Amino acid sequence: MNPNTCVRCSSAELQPGKLWGYHQVRFVPESRRFLSLFSSVKVRALVCMNCGTVNLAAEQAAVAEIMK
Ligand SMILES: [Zn+2]
After folding, report:
1. Cα of 10 from ligand 1 centre, angstroms
2. Ligand 1 centre and the CA of 27: distance in Å?
3. How far apart, in whole angstroms, are the C-alpha atoms of residue 29 and residue 5?
4. Is 18 within the bounds of a domain?
5. Which side of the chain, N or C, has fewer Cβ within a 10 Å radius?
6. How many angstroms separate the alpha carbon of residue 7 from the centre of ligand 1?
7. In a domain, 5, yes or no
8. Which residues contact 22 (CB under 8 A, 6 or more apart)?
9. How many domains does the chain have?
10. 1 found inside a domain
């Protein structure tokens, strides 16, 4: 999967942003029991301006770091 193109239509016209509810959405590895800012990573959202799909991504290096 190329993080710079839409997973649905492969368009490169992606608008970056965040998914936001009461708090910002974060990724927590399944092996982590407790949720904290130090055991989770930000989830980046990119809306495809061609088809409207919301593409989600997280920084792999940050996930690898909290898995140590
Ligand atoms: Zn698309």
Report:
1. 6
2. 23
3. 24
4. yes
5. C
6. 7
7. no
8. none
9. 1
10. no
